[in-house]
Design brief:
- The protein is mainly α.
- It has two domains: about 60 residues, Arc Repressor Mutant, subunit A (Orthogonal Bundle); about 90 residues, no CATH class.
- The strands form two sheets. Strands 1-2 form a two-stranded antiparallel ribbon. Strands 3-4 form a two-stranded antiparallel ribbon.
- A hairpin with a 5-residue loop joins strand 3 and strand 4.
- The longest helix has 18 residues.
- The radius of gyration is 31 Å and the shape is flat.
Length: about 190
């Protein structure tokens, strides 16, 4: 296999940024037409430009090993996000009210928080009340992602059609005639 040119090495490096082949080709200095029409095949077809295909494959494998991200890690993170709930973050005060307690949370719990919304209200007598609302990930989306990841396909519709079954459509009159025949003569063999 021939060695990568400087532009091809730059393309591989740029491709690893966002896995967008046309954008990487443009950033590496390829003409817009070439970037648009050919760059995808460089990373998806081992025959078209085998040196680029192989370099991208090796670079992605090395990066995956370096950061220790694999399918199991992705699934564990999804499950961790799904398991996050508001009760994990709440602390009951002596007066019976609750407040969010983030200082005792684990890094995984903190990572599950999508946002905190603070609302401050000042009453006519000058008292200020602050309400905090925590936003956690959408449970249904996470369940779908987990289901897709482990190939449960719980949210996919599966229909099985028996192609050997013949369906006859008959009018009520025809049906009555068929039933009369069966009662009179019995079920045909």
């Amino acid at each position: 296999m021939k060695a990568l040119t400087i532009r091809e090495r730059l393309f591989v490096a740029e491709y690893l940024i966002d896995l967008d082949a046309p954008a990487a080709a443009l950033r590496a200095g390829y003409a817009p037409g070439t970037a648009k029409t050919h760059s995808y095949t460089w990373v998806s077809d081992p025959v078209r430009k085998p040196q680029i295909y192989q370099a991208v494959k090796v670079a992605i494998e090395e990066r995956t090993e370096r950061i220790l991200v694999d399918a199991d890690w992705v699934l564990q993170e999804l499950v961790g996000l799904y398991q996050a709930n508001h009760a994990s973050f709440l602390k009951r005060n002596e007066d019976g009210t609750y407040e969010y307690n983030l200082k005792d949370c684990t890094p995984r719990q903190l990572a599950a928080i999508e946002g905190l919304h603070l609302t401050r209200k000042v009453s006519a007598d000058g008292d200020t009340t602050t309400r905090t609302r925590m936003v956690l990930p959408d449970k249904l989306k996470l369940l779908k992602m987990i289901g897709d990841h482990v190939d449960i396909q719980a949210f996919s519709e599966h229909q099985t059609v028996d192609t050997h079954t013949t369906i006859e459509v008959m009018s009520r009159v025809e049906l009555a005639k068929q039933l009369a025949f069966i009662f009179r003569e019995g079920i045909p063999q």
